[in-house]
Write a structure and sequence with these properties.
Layout: H1 2-19, H2 24-33, H3 40-60, H4 64-82, H5 89-106, E1 114-121, E2 124-131, E3 139-145, H6 156-164, E4 168-173, H7 191-202, E5 207-217, H8 220-228, E6 234-240, H9 255-264, H10 270-279, E7 293-298, H11 307-315, E8 320-325, H12 336-352
Helix pairs in contact: 2-3, 3-4, 3-5, 4-5, 7-8, 9-10
């Protein structure tokens, strides 16, 4: 069991780690030293502590730019230490807290800087980070939605592409994600939390919330179009490797993925988790998406069947562009240079139009 989980993590996620901020040498150092899944969190946390220490030293010495870089990288390492650690919630939450602390301390020293925004929802709260270009605003804004096992700390490389094109970014932990995962379970009706997010953005001087786009990755690639099915303020959508109906391939999902969904949907067992997964569905709703949508997927995706992207494209009620890469893996992480800049250009063109 332990070795199988380790093999899944290493086999499925190498490209994702490297494209989202982990240095190749650090990745090789950890994965070559860990022999069982039980050692995963400790090994990544130890390396995160090195980057955190570099950041704290830079802060003390007044080297703010270096501090922002080191601390935000430490946050990513802590995140990847705990991202599938659902069998020990206490340890996962402790490590997660270190990721959040590093990221929050990094925000004032990023270029452009970021600020934390909390949004009440039900009996908890969602947490997002707003960053806006230094040029005069207000700016169109892109809401970036993580997936099942990702969080706001992981999305800086993608976020930067939108910022470079003059768009503000709001990277958010929604229900079942990041800081919100302990109080708010995964839910299918993302038009509800989506509306709360846009409500929070509407009063901010840096943002022109009448020009809001949504980008989502993996399970976030379901949340983003689902938001557009019931929230008319969304002007454009990008779905990257999102499911059309999550759970239809439940038995084929990696065990780490099933465990993460069970924990973050607050399910008692596998059957309850499967039933909840099937409720995350665009069946009968895709036609309500009337705004422009870009769909990106890969034929070699081992997590979400590529046919789901085709179903979304066929069912949408508005203009659609489908980028299907024959050799793309999950989230097309092995081909980011072929879709990330294009997606940022596509979103900028729609929101500035």
């Amino acid at each position: 069991m332990e070795d199988r989980r380790l093999a899944e993590a290493i086999g499925n996620w190498r490209a994702r780690f490297l494209e989202n901020g982990v240095s190749p040498s650090d990745y090789d150092r950890v994965t070559s030293s860990v022999t069982e899944w039980s050692g995963w969190l400790g090994a990544w946390s130890a390396l995160a502590e090195v980057h955190e220490s570099l950041g704290r030293d830079a802060l003390a010495e007044g080297r703010s730019r270096s501090a922002g870089g080191h601390l935000s990288q430490a946050a990513v390492y802590y995140h990847f230490a705990k991202f599938f650690w659902t069998h020990d919630i206490q340890e996962m939450r402790r490590t997660h807290g270190r990721a959040v602390s590093c990221f929050m301390d990094a925000l004032p020293h990023l270029d452009p800087p970021g600020r934390r925004i909390e949004i009440p929802l039900d009996n908890g709260r969602m947490v997002g980070v707003l960053r806006a270009p230094r040029s005069a605003g207000p700016h169109p804004v892109v809401i970036l939605v993580p997936g099942l096992d990702s969080a706001k700390e992981e999305l800086r490389p993608t976020e930067q592409l939108f910022l470079d094109r003059g768009l503000a970014t709001f990277v958010v932990d929604g229900p079942g994600q990041g800081e919100a995962e302990y109080d708010l379970p995964i839910r299918p009706d993302w038009e509800v939390p989506g509306a709360a997010m846009i409500d929070a953005l509407e009063g901010l001087p840096e943002v022109d919330a009448t020009r809001t786009g949504v980008w989502g990755v993996s399970l976030g690639g379901y949340y983003a179009p689902r938001m557009a099915t019931g929230e008319p303020r969304v002007r454009a959508v990008i779905s990257l490797s999102g499911p059309f109906q999550f759970g239809t391939n439940w038995d084929d999902l990696p065990s780490l993925t099933r465990d993460a969904f069970r924990a973050r949907s607050f399910s008692e067992n596998d059957d309850e988790a499967r039933a909840k997964a099937l409720k995350l569905s665009l069946v009968g709703r895709a036609g309500n998406i009337v705004v422009p949508m870009l769909i990106v997927a890969g034929r070699k995706d081992r997590i979400i069947p590529p046919h789901d992207a085709e179903l979304l494209a066929e069912g949408a009620g508005g203009p659609v562009e489908l980028l299907m890469f024959e050799d793309g893996n999950h989230n097309c992480m092995n081909l980011t240079y072929r879709h990330r800049p294009k997606a940022a250009d596509w979103m900028a063109a729609r929101l500035f139009a």
